[in-house]
Amino acid sequence: xxxxxxxxxxxxxxxxVVKTLYHDERVQSxxxxxxxxxxxxxxxxxxxSEPRVEYARVDLAKHRPVSDLFHSTxxxxxxxxxxxxxxxHGATAEDSAPILGGVAERTAETRLLMQHxxxxxxxxxxxxxxxxxVYRLPPGNVNRLDEHSELxxxxxxxxxxxxxxxxxxxxxxxxxxxxxxxxxxxxxxxxASGGYVYLNPALAGARGRRxxxxxxxxxxxxxxxxxxxxxxxxALHARSSGVYNIAGREAVPLxxxxxxxxxxxxxxxxxxxxxxxxLARLLGVDFAGSGRAPHLRYGxxxxxxxxxxxxxxxPLDRIGxxxxxxxxxxxxxxxxxxx
Length: 339
Description:
Elements: E1 2-6, H1 12-22, E2 27-34, H2 43-46, E3 53-57, H3 63-70, H4 73-78, E4 82-85, H5 105-119, E5 125-131, E6 143-145, H6 159-172, E7 181-187, E8 189-192, E9 196-198, E10 211-213, E11 219-224, H7 225-237, E12 242-245, E13 251-253, H8 254-260, E14 266-268, H9 273-283, E15 300-302, H10 305-310, E16 317-323, E17 329-335
Helix pairs in contact: 1-7, 3-5, 5-6
């Protein structure tokens, strides 16, 4: 029976993970940790004289709060043996905002959690979500990436992706640790119910006007939040360690995905992008993204055979358009296979 701690449980993917593990009879208890107050959907999880779920409010990017949590009576009494690290991803997350020393918030909390997991005597498993956007993308849309594909170590890589690469390297460096079993799940664009999209650097940041290079429309691999939670559950109970690609059944062009969620980009001839960006700054117009980064030009899909073989993971959802109550079409996830 596993005793699990889930980070950023107050954000959409974290909430989904807590719900999935709550209904898993092999999970004895869950310590859900979030930046804000507990979600209302947790009311039934937290109810009762001896609830299986506890909630703690902690700033995971700061050393003192994380240290206090791992050395607290609450943590010791929970007897946590498995850490599930869901990075910050909700609407209020400032993913690329630097903190002290110019280190991205995501990188800082990954480093802190890794350090404390290695030092905590009872923690023997760490399952972490990473990003598939860490891979180097050669020109074209036919890139089929497996876990041995190169990471994008270009010094000019976008800060958002740089933070994901830094986190990946921190976690990847411990996959052969003798005491703590480390599983890193690299996921592409995550689609949640209601058409919300997470963990896609091309759609991250402020909702300003966007530019994209004319003639480029990268393919985006997709996965539902429920399938991400199923993959975490599979990794939690597996014996394997290492890095695994996780993806759903669908992949769509970035322009289509952007249009579905109401965040379309303006196509601009490539030589004019620097001029358009500079002119926008002079006019005080907010352009989110320059349109020149590889992930805005070249697409990819993921080879997930290793996760299927070692973890027993297979996607259970279909992702597509569904008609809402007001008659409008929106992005939606639908389960086609029972978990």
